[in-house]
Specification:
about 425 residues, alpha/beta, Rossmann fold, 2 domains, about 20% helix, about 15% strand
Length: about 425
């Protein structure tokens, strides 16, 4: 049976954007000082490189050659994740031996085909709390002005034309109305439903223009509603990858007693491990809050922290990077060129060859839940029957910075070994 070679395309290194403000502001006007245990910096991983940094400035890994749109290196401090968060450190696969490929002949070789990277639909959940009305430095403009400009620039960017975009805002009332602001259904109903940016961009701009800062920060119900809409959308659009982009500038201050980052992270983790999976990206605007924990739980490793020195450009770059990186490393299953070939989903191997180093077999997991227990990472199907996509475990995705991915048909995969 022929093997199908998949060149990893548009595999972008995440941008690490420096955070200029060490402390955020609560929406009641009081200042918040981050706990000292959260003040250590966490380095951003480079393409195929190792992550470095502990308690100091983060540095990007140097090995690998993948690049991302407008990718920059972080040199500023950023809050690190709390202990016990899902690990997304890069993990190597198993040594690959073509002579032990599991086929009748002992070798799986033949025609190579290229599989397409899965396109992205993003549902932006935008914080519009009163702290977004704070002035930025000596610019004479408030934070919301820069965000509005950034959203306009993003949806009008030629690179975003085929990206799916939808948007909603939290809290809903713009004041302190718990009945409105804590209603999950209001956040699972978008102000602008997801559509291609080229088609709905004007509607997104109008929605932001018609919204003003005000009220508190009901992050918990907002994320619950966002992932609910994301999962509904993903179910109806299996050929694309749906993500939630949570944009916030402060601590959750409403609709949760007590306020807990763990509860919010649980929402993100359940969505990321669901079927279909919906991953959560987090964009922090001057936030001292521990956003990395939510991002890791949502399967996206780290929060993007926006530099208040250039909010608009940093925000646009971040959204473009989210839409062009390999996401959770989702790949369409290649279709054999020969229509007479029968695809046996139980005989599929995934082999990764990094830019530097030997080939590695990525073991097969039965579902996302097995990812956390496998030291060699893994991959799994989006659905157990009639799958359409190959999904890669977060720690394996962390390694897919450069190189090629092969999908080998007719070969028995090695199962993950749970520790």
């Amino acid at each position: 049976m022929p093997a199908l070679t998949v060149n990893a395309r548009s595999v972008a290194a995440f941008s690490a954007l420096s955070l200029a403000i060490a402390c955020g502001s609560k929406d009641d006007g009081s200042q918040v000082t981050p706990n000292a245990s959260l003040a250590g910096a966490s380095g951003m991983q480079g393409a195929g490189g190792a992550q470095t940094g502990s308690g100091g400035a983060g540095t990007s890994g140097s090995s690998g050659s993948g690049t991302g749109t407008g990718a920059v290196t972080s040199t500023g401090a950023r809050p690190s994740g709390t202990a016990g968060s899902p690990s997304t450190a890069a993990c190597s696969g198993l040594p690959f031996d073509a002579s032990d490929a599991g086929s009748d002949s002992g070798v799986c070789a033949g025609v190579s085909l290229e599989a397409e990277r899965v396109d992205v639909d993003m549902y932006i959940m935008m914080d519009r709390s009163v702290s977004m009305a704070e002035q930025v430095g000596t610019t004479g403009r408030i934070r919301w002005d820069f965000v509005r400009d950034a959203v306009r620039a993003f949806v009008q960017d030629p690179g975003a034309a085929n990206i799916g975009v939808g948007i909603q805002f939290f809290g809903q009332s713009g004041s302190r109305d718990d009945a409105m602001d804590c209603d999950v259904a209001r956040y699972s109903t978008p102000a602008v439903p997801i559509g291609l940016a080229s088609a709905v961009g004007a509607d997104v701009i109008t929605a932001v223009d018609d919204t003003l800062p005000g009220g508190l920060t009901p992050t918990f119900p907002a994320l619950q509603g966002a992932v609910a809409y994301g999962q509904q959308w993903a179910t109806g659009h299996p050929g694309r990858a749906t993500v939630v982009v949570l944009v916030t500038d402060g601590f959750p201050t409403q609709c949760q007693n007590p306020v807990s980052v763990g509860d919010i992270a649980d929402v993100a983790q359940q969505a990321a491990s669901g079927s279909p999976p919906v991953h959560t990206y987090v964009v922090g605007l001057a936030a001292g809050y521990n956003l990395d924990t939510i991002a890791r739980a949502g399967g996206t490793r780290q929060a993007f922290l926006i530099d208040e020195g250039d909010i608009t450009q940093s925000f646009v770059t971040t959204l473009l990077n989210i839409s062009t990186n390999p996401l959770s490393c989702e790949y369409e299953i290649p279709i054999p060129a020969d229509p007479t070939q029968q695809l046996d989903f139980d005989k599929v191997q995934v082999v990764y060859t990094p830019a530097v180093g030997g080939a590695e077999e990525i073991p097969r997991a039965q579902n996302a839940g097995e990812c956390s227990g496998s030291a060699a990472g893994g991959w799994y199907y989006d659905t157990p029957t009639n799958p359409s996509k190959i999904l890669v475990c977060p720690c394996t995705c962390s390694r897919f910075g450069a190189g090629k991915v092969e999908v080998r048909l007719g070969c028995d995969p090695r199962p993950v070994s749970i520790h």
